[in-house]
Amino acid sequence: MRARLVAAVAGLALCACSALGLTDVTPQEQGCRDCTELNLVDPPPACMSWQCDRVNQVCVLDTEDLDDDDAQSAACVLEGEPDCDDLDPRNAPGLGECLDGQDNDCDEAIDEELFARVQVGGARADVGPLAWTSDGAIGLFVTPSPLALSTWSGGAVAALTGDPPVGSNITSVAAARLNATRPDELLVAYDSVANLCPRVTVGRAAMGVFSEMTDAAAGLPKLGSGQRCPDATTRVFAPSVAHDGERDAVALWLEGDADREACGAEASPVGAIQLEVTPAVAPVGTDPVAIGSQGGLGGVPVVAIGASTFVAALTSASGEVQLLRLTAGASLEAAAHLHTETACGAGCGRAALSVREGELGLAYRAGGCDDAEIRVRRFAIDGADLRPIGDTIAIDAGDVSRLALAPIASGWAVAWSEGRALRYAEIGAGGVSPIALAYEQTAAVTTPLGLEGGEDVVLRSYDANPGLLDEHRRVPCALP
After folding, report:
1. Cα dist from 214 to 198, 202, 219, 283, whole Å
2. Measuring CA to CA, which residue among 475, 415, 428 is closest to residue 116?
3. How crowded is the C-beta side of 94, counted as CA atoms within 13 Å?
4. H or E segment to which residue 462 belongs
5. Full-prediction pTM beyond 0.90?
6. DSSP class of 168
7. How far apart are CA 407 and CA 411, in angstroms?
8. Is there a domain that residue 275 lies in?
9. What is the C-alpha to C-alpha distance for residues 346 and 98, in angstroms, rounded to an integer?
10. What DSSP assignment string belongs to 212-260?
11. Scanning 46, 159, 167, 423, which has the fewest C-beta atoms within 10 Å of its C-beta?
12. 89 within 8 A of 67, measured Cβ to Cβ
């Protein structure tokens, strides 16, 4: 046990207090306010120091522990592991690791093991196209045989019954929450081909049952003539959806033949249409709105920022990211430009949007195909408009293939993939915190990441070989 001198040094403590002009105050009455000054006025023997006895609230003489974290100084340790930083109580053996750029647990590693990896179910090779709600809490994926939709939420996977998806060759899906408190109520969209006709179809999932939109075989109307199947000449793909929490929703998609997962591909026209959720899902009108062209990777993210008001992020072939407002009414109004982020991306851009109360977050990939950076920008939501907050924040990255953004208690979190590796960083008032997660999957990350923020951060990913659904849960930070 530590050599602790309390009773034996009571007189010495009183002498020290006298030296400090505290002759009329006993150690117990004085408490621990002057332990540091006692070490200066009445220097103790080597490897000893005046420290606070928290139980009795009195200064006692004990083995040196300059930061009073119950871990003894490295040069004076009598038992246990030495303190690797005796000037900071946030760093000591036995403490948990936090994302602060320091070695909190004194294991000679910084910001490590901040996520605990949990596998959801066993290995499965039947996970097809995968999408996440904008809050990263609910995943939706396709199983090819038999063709069906399944949800991934709360550490569990559930197959949807009801209507099977129409057609085949589904390359992408989309999902948006219809009820903030019900994870089983989703607005769903997917692309497919049936009778040689490409289409995007929407529907609703509720209580584990999926219901297609009316006339699902025809799909949503396409740009230009507003034709629906059996028009087989126009490819439509990469849908995205958003719901305002009431009756209005929007669906976006890309048209053309470009491979939107290949850098430098030709830009694809973007179509948008208003949807009504009553609770059945149906398009409003037959004429979709052309809102621009997508020159970056993947589809166009879209979120609701208020009743009947949505924001979409288009990435140009040169890397510019444009924020556009979509307004629902009798039909969807033409897109209004809100903001442009300039970044040379050589057609390799990718964007993510997320919303917290009164604030919109934008994360996007900037730079070349093999050497990129992640940029994050915040906006105050002012009615139907956006007002930039602060400067754009840049995070060094490599070959970024997937990107996710979520609000957390201290600011914003961003996750991305570089080949097989997953990366993570937090952005708060002090700027960008160090990367906390560097977990390598067995195969390259080819499906979207789900990043759920709030108090308990969870990063979800699919490891294609051997087919694992992984949840990486943020370890709580508990420092003195």
Report:
1. 17, 9, 9, 9
2. 475
3. 10
4. strand 458-463
5. no
6. B
7. 6
8. yes
9. 37
10. EPTTTTT-SPPTTT---TT--S--EEEEEEEE-SSSEEEEEEEESS--T
11. 46
12. yes
Q: Do residues 173 and 188 touch, judged by C-beta distance below 8 A? A: yes
CATH number of the domain that residue 248 is part of: 2.115.10
Do residues 214 and 327 share a domain?
yes
> What are 57's two structure tokens?
């609230």
382: which residues sit within 8 A by CB, 6+ positions away?
none
State whether 189 and 316 are in the same domain: yes
pLDDT in tens, 306-348: 999 999 999 888 778 999 999 999 989 989 999 999 865 666 7
60 lies in which domain range?
Answer: 7-89
CA distance 274 to 434: 41
Total structural domains in the chain?
Answer: 2
List of residues 6+ apart from 44 with CB closer than 8 A: 50, 61
160 and 50 assigned to the same domain: no
For 388-427, write each residue's pLDDT tens digit.
Answer: 999 899 988 878 889 999 999 889 999 999 888 888 888 8
CA 349 to chain CA mean position, Å: 18
Of 276, 271, 301, the residue nearest 289 (C-alpha): 271
Q: Which two tokens stand for residue 146?
A: 């038999």
